[in-house]
Amino acid sequence: MSSRTASHTALITGSTAGLGSAFARQLAAQGYDVVLAARSDDRLESQAETLTSRYGVRAEVIVADLTTDDGVGAVQERLADTAHPVHLLVNNAGHGLAGSFVDNELDAERDLLRLHVQTTMELTHTAARAMTAQRAGRIINVASVAGYTPTGTYSAAKAWVINFSKGLHSQLKPAGVTVTAVCPGLVRTEFHQRAGITAQGAKRWMWLEAEDVVRQALTANAQGAAVCVPSRTYQALTASLKFIPDSVVQWAADRGLGVPGQDEDAQRQLAAGSEDASDDGTAAADADSSETDSVSSARQ
C-alpha cells in the first residue's frame, strides 16, 4: 500500500458499474481506503471484497438510493464523520433517459434532476464543509460533454454540474480543496444500455474506455484543474461547439448521437470551429476564465 495515501479515504457514488467502478479500482490501487455507495447490496459487497482482497485496502459500503432524502442522508452522515474523514469525494452516480422530455414521465424527469443536480449539490456541500475545516480535500463531479450542448434535461443537468464545479473550484482553492468537473464523451459502460438509449449513430472514434477517462480525471484533479475533458478529440470538439449553431448540435443529437459529419454544410461548420482549438488538443478557455478554469490537457 502506498504510504502517501495509506490513511486517506475516497468515497465514490454509483461505484458498482462503469466509471464508478473504475474510480474505485484506481483509487484502491493508489492505496486509498474506499467507501462505496450504490443501490445494489449484493454488488456492493462483492465489489468491497474484491478491492480488499486485491489491493489490501479497507472498503466500506453504503446501500443508498440517491434519489431519496434517506439515501443522500446516509452518505452525508459518512462524509461528515470527522473521526474518519473522507479526503476525496467522487460524485459519479447518474442515469439517462431514453425518451423525449414530453414523452418521459414527470417523476422520471424529477429523479434525473434530483440525482444529477440536487444530490450532487448536497453531497458536495457536506464534503466541502468537512474538507475546508481540515484545509485539504478533493472533489470530482462527473459531468459530460453533453453539458456543452442544448440537447435536453440531461445536458442541462450536466451544464449545471460543470458551472457549479467551476465556481466552487475558485471558492475552495484558497482553503486547500480542489473541485474538478470531468466531462467525458461516450464511454464504454453500462450507462446507455441501462437507460435504454441506443448509440447506433456513434462512430468508433467517439468511444472512450472507462479506465482512460478515470485516469485522466484523477490526474487533472491532482494537478488542480477545474475542468477535465478526457481525450484530445473531445477537447477539440467541445472547443468548437461555441462556433456551431445550436440547431446543428441538436441535429446531430437527434440522429443517434452522431456528429454533423454526414451533412456537408454541418461538416464545414464543425471543421471551421475545430480550427480554433489549441494545437495541443486542449480546449481554449473563455477569455474571462481564470487559468485553472481551462480544460485539462491530460493525455489518454
Helix fraction bin: 40-55%
- End-to-end separation: 25 Å
Write out the strand line-up for the largest beta sheet, numbering strands in chain order. 3-2-1-4-5-6-9-10
Rg over CA atoms, rounded to whole Å, is 19 Å
Anisotropy-based shape: globular
CATH H-level superfamily: NAD(P)-binding Rossmann-like Domain
In DSSP terms (H or I, runs of 4 or more residues), the helix count works out at 10
Assigned CATH class: Alpha Beta
Runs with pLDDT <50, length 5+?
1-5, 256-300
CATH architecture: 3-Layer(aba) Sandwich
| Order of helical and strand elements | EHEHEHEHEHEEHEHEHHHE
| Total strands | 10
Explain this structure to me?
The protein contains ten helices and ten strands. It starts with 8 loop residues before the first strand and ends with a strand. The protein is globular, with a radius of gyration of 19 Å. It has one domain (9-235, 289-296): 3-Layer(aba) Sandwich (Rossmann fold), CATH 3.40.50. The chain is an alpha/beta fold and 300 residues long. The strands form two sheets. Strands 3-2-1-4-5-6-9-10 form an eight-stranded parallel beta sheet, sandwiched between helices.
